[in-house]
Automatic annotation (TrEMBL):
Organism, as annotated: Trifolium medium
Highest taxon, organism lineage: Eukaryota
Pfam families noted in UniProt: IQ
Protein name: Calmodulin-binding transcription activator 5-like
PROSITE patterns, alphabetized: IQ
SMART domains noted in UniProt: IQ (SM00015)
KW Transcription (keyword) present: yes
Family indicated by similarity: Belongs to the CAMTA family.
Record field: transmembrane: none
Origin organism lineage: Eukaryota, Viridiplantae, Streptophyta, Embryophyta, Tracheophyta
Gene Ontology CC, one term: nucleus
Amino acid sequence: MKGYDGLAAYLSEKCLVEQFNDMSLAGNISGSLDTTTNDPVNLENLTEDQMHLKDTLAAYRTTAEAAARIQAAFREHSLKLRYQSVQFLSPEEEARQIVAAMKIQHAFRNFETRKAMAAAARIQYKFRSWKLRREFLNMRRQAIKIQAAFRGFQMRRDYRKILWSVGILEKVILRWRLKRKGFRGLEVNPDEDMKDEKQESDVEEDFFKTGRKQAEERVERSVIRVQAMFRSKKAQQEYSRMKMAHSQAK
């Protein structure tokens, strides 16, 4: 009773006193409960707080005595009932009760054993699942590393092929522009070079420079596109589809 502690204490005290009186009338408790306060202290010399404290102590003393004597009477009554049940119990009934108690104990032990075994089985199942999952994650991580290394190797190989193709294309363009018989970097006949140089005019030199510049720009753009392909997954997929379509067309 929140906010009504004094009222709750008063009602509890009266309830215990009434129960004690009822049990005393029924013959379950001998003696009487002392509810009077024979205190020689002069009440006129006490303050209001001291009077309240005195009444509180008296109520606590009465309540504690009543509760103790009621509990003692309950224990005494329970012991009497047990003694009577044992005294009037026949040997056959006692034997049946012993057998029933043994069966109950055996069933309880079996239940505890089954519960422990089920718990152990669950723990083992969880541990095996965790172990298999850990092994699977390790294998998947290793497979991803191997696949990444293989894809990197394939990309580098394809990139070198593209560079080689671009180099060949550049040499073909330069050969066509210079109107020479060999590729750039190969040794040619010096006499033929002198004749070709004398026949070239200033217009051809300008045209050669412009064409060379355009070829270099195209090569740079091609290299940039190839590099961008390695940075974009979508570009790699498009490159693979184009390569597959070209192979099927052949």
